[in-house]
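Q: Predict the assembly, please.
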Amino acid sequence: MDVRDDVVDILAGFSLFADLTTPELESLVEAFGEETFPNGDRVLRQGLTGSNFYVILDGSATLRVDGVDRATLRAGDYFGEISCLLGVPPTADIVAHEQLRCLMLPGAELERFLVSHPRVMYRLLQGEARKLRTTTRWLS
Amino acid sequence: MVELTERPFPPGRYPLVVVGSGPGALQLTYSLRRLGIEHAVLSRDDEPGGMFRRWPIFQRMLSWTKPYAEHEHGTSAYERYDWNSLLGDDASHRAIMPEVMDGTSYFPSRPEMAQGLRTFAERTGLEIRYGCTWESTRREGGDQFVLTTSDGAYRTGIVVFAVGIAEPWKPQVLDVEGVQQYGELHPAESYAGRRIFIVGKQNSGFEIATGLLPWARQIVLASPSRTKLSVDTRTLVGVRARYVQPYEDWALAGGVVILDASIEHVERTQRGYVVSTQSVEGRSMKFEVDDVIAATGFVSPLQDLPELGVATFGQSRIPTQTPFWESATVPGVYFAGTIMQGAQGLRKFGIPSNSGAVQGYRYNARVLARHIAATHFGVTPARPRIGPDEVVPFLLAEASLGPELWHQRSYLCRVIAFDPDAGISDEGIQPLAHFVDGGGGDAAAVTLEANGKDNPYPVVYVRSGGAVRENTLTPPHPMLDYRGAEYEAQVAAALNPVLGRAPTRSAQ
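A: Predicted assembly structure:
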């Protein structure tokens, strides 16, 4: 895949991949593709099928539900996992804020990737737990 | 002096300048000329063809042109089976590749491809200033660009770079004397009896391995992640079937080694090289080999465009682009040819467009020409009217036969506008990302989509009241023909918000 050679160093600093060795990170980087989105471009589109899993390398993005901005995502954050894991269209837009640089894994490959990297799966699960806790606080 | 005056486009000011003479530039200049857009075309080469004047190095394409197909040569439906001809408006400009192929393979040889491109340029009377090398770029007066070339300065407000992504690149670990790159290989027979280590497991690595299989004593192919095959991904992602022989050799333990490992170190020795690798499982290995070949990718020769503000991404340094292939950071700078893959589209299911290949970017070029003509020159393309009863069959015929949709899935679409005053009109082929994200009045767009496991299937996007709704037609048809009543009913239902309850003839 077409990925710059600085990506391994960037990923090594992200908690999601903190347990991976350098060869594992290099393998991951080659399996993912790099994408860049100009300011204002939609990365995920609410209600459209075929989404993917993204990890932000650089820049930030807005999580937008029904046209309302709900959260800001930054380097090290990831998105698209709920849509990929459940096989349903995203329930939010993700919109690039300034230039957004991401790694992208096709949705269909996420299961195989997580199963073969159980420490990443555990850390992703921790991230999902944090999101659930935040949502619960919103609702309570 | 006579020679200088015979060459077209002397230095000066032009409304538009195109740089390049590969298939991307040829298709664009042809399409611009047909729209009457004045422009200059400059190329450092001495003839058309771009990279196909030299490559692929083993002299045969991996994209096919079928001499016999369901549709006649020269029809738009035939283009689905001919991945290599450029697109023409006149009969003599179409389907040139099957004319120049000798019939021994449905993959054109490299010389046949080059001949096809030369023939297209000659028949269509394209004017190109050859031997004119673009050297640098600067801004002048805010919205003007100055291109300095070997022949002098060109001033323009709009410039399209179609300069390819064909300069081999290698990582620092392979920056060792004697490590060869794609394009630097010696004649295949000179590798007789040698042990060869190829870094990179994409098409270029497998092309080299395939070419050297009859000669090499041993071939090792290595990179960190596992090999993907196009027959598994059902896309152009992965190694194409033409180059799968080394993979089978490895699978049957025939002597080829395919390794999922990082390259840690390469050392030059008196007898050759020692390559140290480490697998994801932590296993270290050393290989003593005679040759190391880097098949680690290519970059685009953008020269000083990044300093001008053109943002790029990835190892190939591809410019970040709008859906209409304009630099996302420097308005007025566009791209054509294989660089168009920088406008990534929706990438549904992670599948990229085919904009990196002739069969994809030839359609982009036609769309780009229309876009430039409309936005910069006020030349509005015709928008034929369509009767309400014709809409459903029109969309399904496009899904079944439209070559743009077949070659650029989830990327290009055919758009129909529903204007309460002007009526229903065919808006032509547009980027799907523009339709979905660009806003506008009530309209429908049909495209073909793929998910990596099923047959391609049509999707109709309907924009009504500013909101876009996706309508997937099911099930995928085994013969890939979507003109039946089963699909007509689905399209008619999808169009309800924009067509109202007006019955369509075909849906009755």
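The first helix of chain B runs from residue 2 to 6. Chain B touches chain A through 42 residues (CB under 8 Å).
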